[in-house]
Write a structure and sequence with these properties.
Serine--tRNA ligase, aa-tRNA-synth_II/BPL/LPL, three-stranded antiparallel beta sheet, 2 domains, serine-tRNA ligase activity, 426 residues, tRNA-bd_arm, 18 strands, alpha+beta
Length: 426
């Protein structure tokens, strides 16, 4: 969430900036009115609380002296009902303020280009040259279906649309890609491998910004009165490790990586992305999360993006880096790079990794802090997250870019040790 002092001091200016950069409509007048009401009632509530405490002490002294306390008790009873009403009213106003503030997206970094949608994204650079094929290119669905390796029909029987069953060597290649990515990030880039829960409580989702705005995109489960949610990314579990914590400065940056299934309803998806493994309700990622000092988060963002790029370069997959415009970024992000891998069947680049700096936006929601050694006081950390990378999409990219005329798929050299040395799958 944004700094409350900014919301209180400059509601109109903030509303204008959000409208211009994010296309978000903030009712500044309603916010200011609620804030004024909150201040008024909070002052009266504090007055009544102080009066209650004062009278309680007076009652104690009068009892000790054997004096008649009936008048004091009557006085306390007289303002007790008002105090209770003020406290209830204050709670209601705070709830209404929370409903507004928790729905406000993060402000873009100054380096982020303004724009309403992906057409305003800015290409940073490209790596690799797309392969020129001397035969008709097949997409990943055709390549997988030939051997029953990729089976959407059976998955639909088991679970419905947008699920996939993988078999045989293709399932092994999927696993191999995950192992390769984890070893690269832990061995080369200094991330600590972490195994996290796939089901989390609502507090965790509020912390990283999925709730309350994106509840319809989440799969949920209920046991008794307890509602929990299946994670849409292990960013949720990893980042919330520092919720309500004060991290010592010498532990920063705290870099974590996890391989996990992810669950997302993808309710708004349609068209070609529903074919095969491009966009599914269940998929797997190797996620990167960093908890950093504020003055180091910009450099950490570049380093995290570079870690994801190394995955694609080591696999020999052409890609491009895009700086997202203000209107195309995620809710919690202040700056985002997307990595888009080349897919021969579509003759275009498609997103395979999104790497974001959320500055203090998530940390403020989670009360995640670090102790600044210069002041000795706790301050908000900055949180960053990124895909390093999406395993299903990496599998698609390998299948299509490394396909052969006979339908076999050459295994990238970096992954062969995880495939028992196999050079091709056929």
């Amino acid at each position: 969430m944004l700094d409350p002092s900014l919301l209180r001091a400059q509601p109109a200016e903030l509303a204008a900036r959000l409208r211009e950069m994010r296309g978000y409509s903030l009712d500044a007048d309603a916010l200011a009115s609620l804030e004024a009401e909150r201040k008024q009632i909070q002052v009266r509530t504090q007055e009544l609380q102080n009066l209650r405490n004062t009278r309680s002490k007076a009652i104690g002294r009068a009892k000790a002296k054997g004096e008649d306390i009936a008048p004091l008790l009557a006085e306390v009873a007289g303002f007790g009902d008002e105090l209770k009403a003020c406290e209830e009213q204050l709670d209601g106003i705070k709830s209404r303020l929370d409903a507004i503030t928790l729905g406000i997206p993060n402000l873009p970094d100054e380096s982020v280009p303004a724009g309403a949608d992906e057409s305003a994204n800015v290409e940073q650079h490209r790596w690799g040259t797309p392969r020129a094929f001397d035969f008709e290119v097949k997409d990943h669905v055709e390549l997988g279906a030939r051997h029953g390796w990729l089976d959407g029909d059976t998955a639909a029987k088991l679970s419905g649309a947008r699920f996939t069953v993988l078999r045989g060597q293709l399932a092994r290649l999927h696993r191999a890609l995950a192992q390769f990515m984890l070893d690269l990030h832990t061995g080369t880039h200094g991330y600590e491998e972490t195994n996290v829960p796939l089901i989390v409580n609502a507090e965790s989702l509020y912390g990283t910004g999925q709730l309350p705005k994106f509840e319809e995109d989440m799969f949920a489960t209920e046991l008794g009165e307890q509602k929990r949610y299946l994670i849409s990314t292990s960013e949720i579990s990893l980042t919330n490790i520092v919720r309500d914590e004060i991290v010592e400065a010498d532990r920063l940056p705290l870099r974590m990586t996890a391989h996990s299934p992810c669950f997302r309803s993808e309710a708004g998806s349609h068209g070609r992305d529903t074919r095969g493994m491009i966009r599914q309700h269940q998929f797997e990622k190797v996620e990167l999360v960093s908890i950093a000092r504020p003055d180091e988060s910009a450099a950490e963002h570049e380093a995290m993006t570079r870690a994801a790029e190394v995955v694609l370069e080591t696999l020999g997959l052409p890609y491009r880096r895009m700086l997202l415009c203000s209107g195309d970024m995620g809710f919690s992000a202040s700056k985002t790079y997307d990595l888009e891998v080349w897919l021969p069947s579509q003759q275009t680049y498609r997103e395979i990794s999104s790497v974001s700096n959320c500055d203090a936006f998530q940390a403020r929601r989670m009360q995640a802090r670090w102790r600044n050694p210069e002041t000795g006081k706790p301050e908000l950390v900055h949180t960053l997250n990124g895909s390093g990378v999406a395993i299903g999409r990496a599998l698609i990219a390998v299948m299509e870019n490394y396909q052969n005329t006979d339908g076999s798929i050459t295994v990238p050299e970096a992954v062969r040790p995880y495939m028992g040395g196999a050079e091709t799958i056929a």
